[in-house]
TrEMBL record:
<dbReference type="InterPro" id="IPR027417">
    <property type="entry name" value="P-loop_NTPase"/>
</dbReference>
<keyword id="KW-0808">Transferase</keyword>
<dbReference type="InterPro" id="IPR000863">
    <property type="entry name" value="Sulfotransferase_dom"/>
</dbReference>
<comment type="similarity">
    <text>Belongs to the sulfotransferase 1 family.</text>
</comment>
<dbReference type="GO" id="GO:0005737">
    <property type="term" value="C:cytoplasm"/>
</dbReference>
<dbReference type="Pfam" id="PF00685">
    <property type="entry name" value="Sulfotransfer_1"/>
</dbReference>
<dbReference type="GO" id="GO:0051923">
    <property type="term" value="P:sulfation"/>
</dbReference>
<feature type="domain" description="Sulfotransferase">
    <location>
        <begin position="60"/>
        <end position="322"/>
    </location>
</feature>
<protein>
    <recommendedName>
        <fullName>Sulfotransferase</fullName>
        <ecNumber>2.8.2.-</ecNumber>
    </recommendedName>
</protein>
<dbReference type="GO" id="GO:0008146">
    <property type="term" value="F:sulfotransferase activity"/>
</dbReference>
Amino acid sequence: MENTQEGLPTDQEFHHDLVSSLPLEEGMSPVRLRKYQGVWMSEYFLVGTMNAQRYFKSRPTDILLASYPKSGTTWLKALAFSTMTRTRHSFGCHPLHHLNPHECVPLLDEIAGSLESLSEIDAASDPRLISTHLPFSLLPESIKSCGCRLIYVCREPKDTLVSRWHYHGKIVTNMGKSEVIPFEKMFDMFCDDIMPSGSIWEHALGYWNEKTQTPGRVLFLKYEEMLEDPTGTLTRLAEFMGCPFTEEELRVGVPAEIVSLCSFGNLRDLAVQQNRRISPGGIMTTESYYRKGAAGDWRNHLSPEMAEKLDRITAKKLQGTGLTLGRPVSETTAMDA
Ligand code: A3P
């Protein structure tokens, strides 16, 4: 599949050269952002993105878990993986006991950085569970056109920002650096759509539009609703993936077992025991994906002015779309705090 004609650059060399020619933003150091096809993206995932766009062949049976980073991806991966494979694994001896959810469901944007790993996905049997942080506009054409199912999870923008900032702190520490970006600076970049995977609003809208234009193709989940009703979410997830719980499974409590296996406390405890470096790039640890696992932590980080500014942007960007993300400050009460 690669161009190997003598004297000409290979596609891989071409992709690497293309990445270094793209507009660069270093305000989120050590993460370097490049503007690719109109979207700010982490440089680390760009060759993978280009390879995926060029070579990845989606199948109608694929199930793609899509999310903006820090929206509940880890949780969704754990739930989807354990639901889909539940007849193969007992809960007492489950792959999640020794693997991080990110090792159970590959991130296309990262794995496609190596053509060898991409061909491993190619060879995997149906149905394939794959994840991505790509905005809908950047998805490989084969995903857009093959009709495979998409499961999208989104989150309150204020909490997503806070989660990202803490995660960024872990990247800085794990890379042995000391300069953590001030929260106020990341806030400004977030408002200006200068984040890995671009604008949180455009990201959610891309999948929302696909949901409205192609009924039945997209299951649209919200992190806050998952927290409120994990079993209800799991039931919808299983039905959407084509493996609904049977009467017998309901009777013996299989959904409750999966919810408990994938709960924040359980996954975090397992991650602490696992205590290993994992992706991206072996920088993060199994623990890096767990922090508070709650809604509303923005109150501990954003001033009232910042919260109102973000709410205003959210309202403006989503106006007339039918999509809502989180709850504006004006609608929350002291009871929510
Ligand atoms: P916080 O930083 O607010 O705690 P992602 O998986 O997309 O990277 O998102 C990470 C966020 O999801 C983090 O939020 C993390 O704590 C939370 N999270 C991870 N696993 C979870 C789980 N099983 N249940 C609820 N939240 C979870």
